Sequence to fold (297 residues):
Amino acid sequence: MRAFTGRLFDNAYILMTLTAFFWGGNFVLGRGIADHIPPIALSCLRWSFASLLIAPFALARTRADWPEIINNWRILVFLGVVGGGTFNTMTYIGLNHTTALNGLVIQSSGPVMIAIAAYLVFSDRLSRAQIFGIGLSLVGVLWVISSGDMARLKSLSLNPGDLLILFAFATWAIYTIYLRKRPNIHWTSFILILSLIAALINVPFWIFEHLALRQIQPTMTTLLSVAYVAIFPSTLAFIFFNRSIELIGANRTGVFMHLVPLFGSLLSIILLGEELKSYHLIGFAFIVAGVITTARK
Fold:
């Protein structure tokens, strides 16, 4: 079993496929539970419970890594605020104020933002094959969300929710490229510190939301939703994502974000009863071809 998990943890393509599946579920859930739990509360509880989940496995490593953590506290706080706190909170707020079509269009820009940010900040270069792969998967995403009619994209108009999601994915691009500055600490220590910072940064905003805007509805749906986002999109997905950056780099990891709308569409079909149509299959083929092309060395 240990040998199997070791091989799994060294395979970025499997890790990122699972990550995209978890995040696809997170996207669908974020739209579906808006009436049960407000967005900042969901983000804060997500990271709070993620901290509790990882803590039993991370405390010993964190104590050993503490001198390195103190010496590098600035970059750790930066990554926690940008990658955990800001990105997820802005995404959840945006999903309360925009359509699924708009949100998926904006989400599909994630890999492109990562590539541009890496070029502007660190002068990373993209190969022609990577540029072609990003283009392929972007076409697939746009084909799916436009239901096979690209003309529908012309009718999109940005609203405040769209702008929040656009800002969220810009912060995610920054987080992704700055992971190379992560201190040399164990991955469990890193995820624990990241989760704690992301939770703490949202506490004052959650208090404001609770007092001035909306409160959590104490239902079983709320409980199960918080459990899902704490275990899968937070703890496991962030472990897998950060490990993939170590294995194949930011640009090749980033293109797997195109799988998120693919899985999101599949989950909508399975869970919401939406009909599978030919444009889904065509778009999925483009997305998978783009991911394979870009992920190659």
The chain has one domain: 13-295.
